[in-house]
Each structure stands twice: as C-alpha cells, then as structure tokens.
Amino acid sequence: MSTGSRDCAAPDRRRLLRALAALSLAAAAPVSAQAAGGFTPITERPPAPDFSLADEDGKIWTLSSLKGKVVVVNFWATWCPPCRRELPSLERLRRVLPPEQALVLGINVAESWDTVASFIAGVEPAPAFPILYDENSAVLKAWPVKGLPTTFVIDRKGRIALRAVGGREFDQPEPLAQIGALLREK
Amino acid sequence: MGAMLSAPVLTPAAEDYSFSRSGFSVKLTPLTRDQAASFYLARGLPQRETERYSRRCVLAATLRNERTAGAISFRSGEWRARTRDAPAQPVRTRAQWIEEFEAAGVPEPARIAFEWAQVPDQHEFEPGDWIQGMLAVPVDRETAFDLMLRWRAEGKNHEHWLTGLRCP
Lengths: 186, 168
Known about the structure:
CATH architecture of chain A: 3-Layer(aba) Sandwich
Distance between the termini of chain A: 13 Å
CATH superfamily of chain A: Glutaredoxin
Structural class of chain A: alpha/beta
Number of domains of chain B: 1
CATH class of chain B: Mainly Beta
Mean pLDDT of chain B: 90
Helix content of chain A: 25-40%
Oligomer: heterodimer
Strand content of chain B: 35-45%
Low-confidence stretches of chain A: 1-10, 19-34
C-alpha cells in the first residue's frame, strides 16, 4: 500500500504536471459538448462501499485493499453509447497517472466476458486497466449510481471524493487537475 | 442506447424534440418499433415483453444540467403525456416495468440491462452531469401527443409541455 512519500511522489507529480501541460494544448481541440467538464466534488466524502470483483483473468480486486491510492471507478456497459465514447479517455488517463499512487478500475454491469472482450478489441487506445465483472449488478446497486456511465474518484482514505454522471473526457485539463489535487492529499 | 455494438439505435428515425429552460436541457428522439425492440431482444428480453414495451411510443432521452451552479432533480413518474382524445397519463416508470418483468419471470441479465437503459425514476444532476435513457410513453405510435416534464431547480418546481410529438 503506497503512502505517497515525498521522495517517490515528486517525480510522479512532475509527470502528472507534464501531462497536464501537454493536455492543455490538446484541450484546444474540439471536445464533444456531451463530454466536456469535470467531476462534481463530494463535500462530505462518504466511505466508498467495498467490493470484491473478479477481472477477466479471475484476479479478485477488493477496493478496501487499495487504500493509500487514488482509485478511479467507472461503471459502464457496452450497450451504453456514452460509456463507449469515454472509454479511450479513461485509458489515456491511466497512462498519465502514477501507477504506484493511482489506478483506474472499470466495472462492467451484467455482461459476459465474451461481450466485453469483443467490444474492447475495437477500442483505441485499448483499455489496459482492469475490467471487473459485476454480474448481478449488486455492486452497482450498493453504490450511489442512478445511470450509466457514472464515475467516482476514491481518495487515499477510501472515500468518495469526486463523481461524474454521464460521459466525460477524463484526460482533459479539468478532471486531470481534480485528480491531481487528490494525489497531492496525504 | 445501442442495439448492438455497431448498430446505433439512436440514429434519428424522426424529428428530435428539445428544449432548454432554467438550465435543464432535454432532447427526445422518437425510436421506431424495430429500434426499440432490437435493442432489448439483443439484451435477452423475451419477445412477449419486448413487444409490450415497444408497441407504444419509446423516446431516447438525453437530459442534462447546463447550470453553472446548483442541482436539478426530477421524478419521471410526475411526467405526463396527453393526446387530443385522452387526458394526461403518467409515463410508466422503470420500477413499474421491472415489477412486471419480475412477475413474468424475465431472466435477471435482461432485467438489469432493461433497468439501466431506462430514464431513472428519480435523479439529481449536478452541473455538467447528464444522462441518456429510454422513456416509454403511454401513447400509441403515429398518435400525436404532448409531453409534460417537471423538474426542480433553485428550490422551485418547473414544468414544460413539449407539443406535437409523434413516434413513427
């Protein structure tokens, strides 16, 4: 479990800042109006409901074991158009996050591995973050989700700090800055 | 919503209807019977339930909070549709559909996909948030109708009638 010490965090922060600088140039490119904008800060920061879900390799991911890291949790399904549109930006986000301090988890809702795999094969850039399978939507229902996609950012203490309902472009300056601020928290 | 991975159900088959008031932006796209049915059949909804759902008007809705501050909330059960010949009727909520499908023994994966593809029964958007979902209106296809949407923003109730809608 990373505690984000000053020595190891500084290069990661520099990397994030470099990414932010590069992406601020990219932001000049048109962004879908449907996807513009950042997260809503959750002032009270309630504890994130814990889950244990398997990825495509059968590895079990338990949220509570990831305390100390910033975790982006994205609920999605292949039949949901805004979910499909935002998935490449989640992968681009993953690429600029310091892996020892942050990670992205996609939680697919009630679809089969085959369905997801055949969809992922056509996504560019292909998601390299874990896709977890919420087969009976029990995790989805335990979280404050009313529609898909919904994305949460969990702080280092395991609390829901940010939420976005509807598609976003997660590698744009505003969401990156919000996640960067969480990374700077101890 | 999309019927298949590469077959966008949302391809407009008819005129879109939209409005934006007090930061609540609404776009409604009427779906053909085939569009609505193919989406749910592909998700495993049985033929009988798919037919029951898609024979009436189905709208693909995009709802958005375009305000710079303050939440917008709604309860879709408060929305009403009226025709020239019939008084206003509430739209059917997703909870009502799910209750019916559970009683009919519809398999769980199909119920889950159906549930999450509908406009939620109640929702609160923060600025920048938006959702897409399908909405079943209690009006036959090819029949013109008006639709009233009610929402809450800045501590006040708002409502707006969209007129002359029609599903192909």
